[in-house]
């Protein structure tokens, strides 16, 4: 829109468009802008075309319409407005603050407006005011914190060490009045027990600019010693470097700490004594449980030992009786062998030597009957009268196969009692072998009993063969199992673990005996040993009735038992769990359902 000013009036606005300040001309009658320079339009965020021909109301440039009313009022009364701050709203909604001046020109026809954008200055002024306010608040806050702080606080010259100010708590701590402290140094007041304390403090502060948590001892005016912990920092105060020191009196806390440490030591000693007593009690309980189980084994073990001892006694008596007739047998053998040539005698002696080296062989019932008939037929065919008796003795001695394979010797012996003499001597050999087996059996039982009876809760683990500890237990229970228990050994590994042998034996004893009792000593017991990458797993399974579901959560509880009074203490599985998990750092778990229960023990490999 072109300006509607007459040429004669434009002399007022010769340099209007080039003005470095914002300028505009408004028709007072209509309120419409008739001219506005570039600076003025930039304030409003609009182009000149958007301003000319519009009113301030049309453009909505006033943040507060009351400002427009104030301007119009001053123009009406004074004819001008000078340096009036007014916030204007731009096209984008931002606010700019303008220092506005205006004057009525051309005989009251136009309003010439001029101004300067002081938004940045205003922001700086607001910021300065805010900082000044914050500084005032900070200063008041510091003063309040300094004066009211319950800790002892001081300000001193970092170079000279002279006190600039102290709070009341500081005065109470060292026992001097504020007047006695200000202007003097800590050395003047002789508050440090040693100069090293202050020197150490200052060295750390100068190195880092601060220090905290440093303990020291100070002397009060009365001579009393107090213990403090300090926090210190360097700051610029009134134009010079000042040391801010905060001291917290820890005298009572230190004394209480020392008293508490003494009490803790005494309490620890008492707890150690109690722990030792508990350990002894626990060992006694474990031993009681072990001895209770051992008591259950006594009758069975005694029977197991009596059987081989009776065999040893009987066979020994037979050998003794036989040895008393040794001279007569020699004479009989001499008479028999004198009937043969030297070559036949040598051949018979070789045959007898081989016969005595034959490993005894047993046969089933059907095979035995057939072999006896063959032997009887052989003896009858050679004219030996005692065919049935000889056949029976040969089968019992387990050498029937050798006799039937070497029938030519039978023919040579048919007219002499030499065959009967040989079988008698062979029977004596079998008696000696039976004595050896009985001794081995008894030795194994005694060894197992000795292992089981040992009570040694050692503090050092040793390499232990797992299968050997299981076999020790199975040996002790063999007599109880042989009448109704089918024991299946599935040793898929023969591992060695780092453990306590006596405790492992007790673990297997509890689990195996519980399984036997659950089956009432009639059923199938399966003991399986497996080896994984990290663990050795032993599972003990029975085909008993299973553990009732309500009981399963409690079976490891100490003193909990479902057995009849006098049959169990309820400690067995609790001891097992403790030994597996705490002593051997392993794990025990179980699964149970009607007809099957299996306990699985996992122990880390060596």
TrEMBL record:
Annotated PAS domain residues: 138-185
SUPFAM superfamilies: ATPase domain of HSP90 chaperone/DNA topoisomerase II/histidine kinase (SSF55874), Homodimeric domain of signal transducing histidine kinase (SSF47384), PYP-like sensor domain (PAS domain) (SSF55785)
Keyword Cell membrane assigned: no
Signal peptide per UniProt: none
Record's catalysed reaction(s): ATP + protein L-histidine = ADP + protein N-phospho-L-histidine
Coiled coil: 250-284
Listed name of the protein: histidine kinase
Organism field: Leptospira jelokensis
